Amino acid sequence: MATVAETRMARMPPVFAEPHPQEKSLTALRRQADACERCDLFKHATQTVFGEGPLEARVVLVGEQPGDQEDIAGKPFVGPAGRLLDECLQEAGVDRTLCYVTNAVKHFKFERRGKRRLHAKPNAGEIQRCAWWLGGELELLRPDLIVALGATALYTLMGRSVGLTKERGHILAAANGKPILVTIHPSYLLRIRDHDDRTKERQRFISDLKSIGDQLNA
Length: 218
Ligand code: SF4
Fold this sequence. Notes:
The chain is of the alpha/beta class. The chain has one domain: Uracil-DNA Glycosylase, subunit E (3-Layer(aba) Sandwich), CATH 3.40.470.10. Helix content is about 40%, strand content about 15%. Residues about 1-10 have low confidence and may be disordered. Iron/sulfur cluster binds near residues 42 and 129.
């Protein structure tokens, strides 16, 4: 049976149904996002962490939200999960220069434990409000392929709850027909304690990422 959160999320509009900003440039959109107060997450984070990559990127990789290091640097995927993503992309033979990386939610949500700031999952309302920015990025970039890294990205892109485990490795069609490759977020690999399990899951992730090349060359 669906949880209350899943039921609420299932009612949310898809990212592509969001009214897209009028701005014609990614720089202008980024500047607007820097001042965003559409939800409360801006109050405690250091800064907005907008997407990065070439305007002509053929692939857009979408994660959940910036982590502690990304929040401080103001750049997406520069922490441990980002470095792991870069390694796995390279092993999958994906040209990183063709990729734009971003997140479904642009501010770091966390809980304080002493001096540490621990990741906290964004709620349905925060995801919904922030979908405005991802919709704008995708509208301007118009990539050939979008990669959903994890459940939050997948939900945001599909606009409905989709089983990540069931759809992992598959290409789904977004509401606007764009292909979406489904896989895990690299932070999942960092949480696996057992060495053999982690190695196995890493290879599986690389195998998922190899579909990027297959899709672009199809
Ligand atoms: S998380 Fe997104 S919607 Fe919320 S304030 Fe930040 S940029 Fe705006």
